[in-house]
Amino acid sequence: MRAPIDLQLGWPSTTLHPSGPLLTSASPILTAPEQSAAALNYGPGHGYGPLRASIASWLTASYAPRDADGRPYAIPPNRVMVGNGASGTLLNAVLRLAAPAYTRAVWMVEPTYFLACPIFADAGFGGDGDDEGGPSRMRGVPEDDEGIDVGFLRAAIERVEAEVRAGTGGSTRSGGNPAHFSSMFVHQMLSTGALQNHIDTVLVPTYRRRYHALMSAIKEYLVPLGVVIDVGKKYEASIASSSQLYEGSAGKLATIARDKHKCKFAFGDMFKIEGDPGSAERARRKGGFEMGIRLCWAWLEEEQLVEGVWRMAETIKD
């Protein structure tokens, strides 16, 4: 019986978890009364100060940023904020910086992260009953190789500015940084070099092998069937690759692949802006992202990635 293959899941596989370094870093903190007391209490709103400094130093060393004049630039710790993950941090930003009673629209680059729309809807910017039955205030902004379509965004904002809305809303304030406890462990890993070592010796080599295995399989099995690879550009993703079908609906293909071949992957319709008819229309255009598929290499080993792509090819042939 075939084992399911999930090319959609973006979690790192369990073999990539830094369990040992985390345990080593946690022990001196939890066994020292002063350190453990600090870890188990509320932390600063923007995050644990030493961790912010460690992250700033690490980013400066890793990316060697330069200012507008080309001079080396050290990232200051006050530019770093510690969060509890992408989704939780996005929600906190929305609650602090926007309010349904005041904010007229939320602009999202399309295709967008498919779990972002429910966050904005829960915050009061959705439609179809989520916002007292009113229309959604989430709006898509198309993007090309040069970035956001600024002309489109400017014209759309001008239209929204002519509208008047009224509603209810508010914001919440946390009783401290939501990731304070784990922040102290991560700082310990950074200060000892354990995290950098894990990234350099485990994550990067593993992701590199998986990426090449996935891309080779796409070129061997899918490209001859008319699939176009849509990566290799300067903004190439770090844990996933995207491709475009020559014709047909990626959503229908995903359904057949899941039901018949036990292969799951993300498809273009998932990444449109919920409640924005314009986003759906742009997705359906020839070459639009409705025909796109997204394959992630974070969770699966090389042989599973190749098997998953082969099952996709069998689905297209069907």
From TrEMBL:
Origin superkingdom: Eukaryota
Gene3D superfamilies xrefs: Aspartate Aminotransferase, domain 1, Type I PLP-dependent aspartate aminotransferase-like (Major domain)
MF annotations from Gene Ontology: 2-aminoadipate transaminase activity
SUPFAM superfamilies in alphabetical order: PLP-dependent transferases
PANTHER family with a match to the protein in the record: AMINOTRANSFERASE (PTHR42858), LD15494P (PTHR42858:SF1)
Protein name: Putative classes i and ii family protein
Native source species: Diplodia seriata
